[in-house]
Design a protein that fits this description.
With 247 residues, the chain is an alpha/beta fold. It has a single domain, classed as 3-Layer(aba) Sandwich (Rossmann fold), CATH 3.40.50.970. It has a seven-stranded mixed beta sheet, with helices on both faces. Strand 5, helix 8 and strand 6 form a beta-alpha-beta unit. It is globular, with a radius of gyration of 17 Å. The termini are far apart. The model has no long low-confidence stretch (mean pLDDT 93).
Amino acid sequence: MSRATRDMLPPYSLKEMATHYCPGCSHGIVQRLIAEVAEDLNITKRIVGVAPVGCGGWIYRYLNFDFLAGAHGRASAIACGVKHALPGKVVFSYQGDGDLIAIGWSEVFHAAARGELITIIFINNAVYGMTGGQYAPTTLVKQKTTTTPEGRSVEIYGYPIRFTEVMSQLPKVSYVARVAVNSPKNIIKAKKAIKNAFVHQIETKGFSAVEILSTCPTNWGLTPEKSLKWVEENMMAYYALGEFVHD
């Protein structure tokens, strides 16, 4: 088989099965990228993932890696425990905005402050996805959700939290980037960022994280096509893309 033909096929680490994700959801794209990166880096036998509670919680069903499941918000803490117990493993948590930024903020903030040798893959779709589209810490100002039907109010809820900018201020963070998966060009950049994050862990440089702007057509009340435009016109206007720390 030629290299070109092989590149057109799914990665071996991605199981051949239908996912539970809604049409137009970006989780499947990101999980394929993780599988591709693991194979590119030849770490498929070393990598350990920690699955969250939420839409991405069944990632362990779709990737041929070792996985643990964590309670809501605790995935990054569990990842730290795995890394300390098995320092030769490449450990990552895969978490959404409600799981990571709301319920798990203390765990991820202190893991980053300590410079834990783990990687965080953070899916930001600006809402709680699985539980009904409620307001999340990443919900944009004036964005309507099931719990903010008039739109997010700054006076009541404050401003959306920019995870990547906060992480970039901590001295033991070696790599942090924000990417999107709303276009082929951005998907290529997202894969590069995920690879960089894992390389920083492998080279024991410090804590690494990638924030990925993702779609949620069901809870946004948009078609898959329009949700891609919404990412570009609304999310990317507030959540700037780029590498914020690259030691």
